[in-house]
Amino acid sequence: PAAPEAASLGREWSLGHESLSDYEAVRSLPVRSDLDCTVRASRDSAVQLVAFNASSGLCAHFRCRLGLSHCRKCRNANKGAQRVWTAGSDCWTTVQHRVSGSVDFYRNWTQYQSEFGEGPDGNYWIGLNSLHALTASGPRKLRILMKAWNDSEHWAEYSSFSVGPESDNYRLSVSGFSGSAGIGDSLAPWSNGAQFSTK
């Protein structure tokens, strides 16, 4: 069944459960209801998620960390105990996630065609066939989140991203770069139009 939705001041809000790890608190204020909570949040375009606590009557507003618009990850949808309203229903699909050396990414062509790893919360690769299927209906956005050794976080985003079919060796098409301060475009100038290759 689909999650309930509400429209407040022209913004759509979807009810569900969400991990708050990609969000930061903006404010908390007293309100009368879930609806009042989403109406007040709709006045601030930076607010991406709200949580209403009926027992305290408080409405907590959250925005995406790093100043990003839309940080909801599909893998976090309906996880956790926190009942929340999220702005819109779009979410990000994890393509690759690397957090440690526990999974060997030095693999052959056949292995890269399929999903491998510990799942999207651990070391993970979605698979070339899935990546092509995800982008076959039209280009998608690509967001790359990076964490440095000193825990500083950065992001890069491409407004157009697609991966071709196996018959074209999963050719990459990527353009429309934007990024956090100090991050340059190190993907499109060298990789746009390139075919996938591995060992």
TrEMBL record:
SMART domains: FBG (SM00186)
InterPro entries membership: Fibrinogen-like_C (IPR036056), Fibrinogen_a/b/g_C_1 (IPR014716), Fibrinogen_a/b/g_C_dom (IPR002181), Fibrinogen_C-term_domain (IPR050373)
Pfam family, one: Fibrinogen_C
Domain Fibrinogen C-terminal as annotated: residue spans: 28-199
PROSITE patterns for the chain: FIBRINOGEN_C_2 (PS51406)
Any GO CC annotation of this UniProt entry: extracellular space
The protein's name: Fibrinogen C-terminal domain-containing protein
Protein species of origin: Macrostomum lignano
